[in-house]
């Protein structure tokens, strides 16, 4: 599970994994997240790195620290994260993707219809 890539700091990658857990409802609102110790042991990283990831989630208002109990997903966190992740996608990733679509002169309608095709068809040339 410690398959980190060098393109981003480890704490950012851990934060993203925690975000994905909340968005997928693996950890529901009101529930405790895995402890700093547990995550640091599972991923073989420094506990301070994990703490930094948690602090980033506290800063955006989706996680709260309960003294002596751990970190908990706040009520409304999933909706807040969904809005945050959508905004991040539209501002950071979409411009690059849109530019690539334009550079490759892809037809948007064909592209969208391909997205709806079952994966079992494989890649067909048109």
TrEMBL record:
<keyword id="KW-0804">Transcription</keyword>
<dbReference type="InterPro" id="IPR000524">
    <property type="entry name" value="Tscrpt_reg_HTH_GntR"/>
</dbReference>
<dbReference type="GO" id="GO:0003677">
    <property type="term" value="F:DNA binding"/>
</dbReference>
<feature type="domain" description="HTH gntR-type">
    <location>
        <begin position="8"/>
        <end position="76"/>
    </location>
</feature>
<dbReference type="Pfam" id="PF00392">
    <property type="entry name" value="GntR"/>
</dbReference>
<dbReference type="InterPro" id="IPR036390">
    <property type="entry name" value="WH_DNA-bd_sf"/>
</dbReference>
<protein>
    <submittedName>
        <fullName>GntR family transcriptional regulator</fullName>
    </submittedName>
</protein>
<dbReference type="InterPro" id="IPR036388">
    <property type="entry name" value="WH-like_DNA-bd_sf"/>
</dbReference>
<keyword id="KW-0805">Transcription regulation</keyword>
<dbReference type="GO" id="GO:0003700">
    <property type="term" value="F:DNA-binding transcription factor activity"/>
</dbReference>
<keyword id="KW-0238">DNA-binding</keyword>
């Amino acid at each position: 599970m410690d398959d980190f890539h060098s393109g981003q700091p480890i704490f950012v990658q851990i934060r993203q994994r925690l975000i994905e857990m909340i968005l997928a409802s693996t950890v529901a609102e009101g529930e405790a997240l895995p402890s700093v110790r547990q995550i640091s042991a599972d991923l073989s990283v420094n506990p301070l790195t994990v703490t930094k990831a948690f602090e980033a989630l506290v800063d955006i208002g989706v996680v709260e620290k309960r003294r002596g109990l751990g970190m908990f997903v706040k009520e409304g966190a999933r909706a807040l994260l969904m809005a945050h992740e959508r905004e991040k996608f539209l501002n950071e990733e979409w411009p690059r993707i849109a530019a690539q679509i334009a550079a490759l002169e892809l037809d948007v309608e064909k592209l969208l219809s391909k997205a709806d095709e079952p994966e079992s068809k494989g890649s067909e040339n048109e």
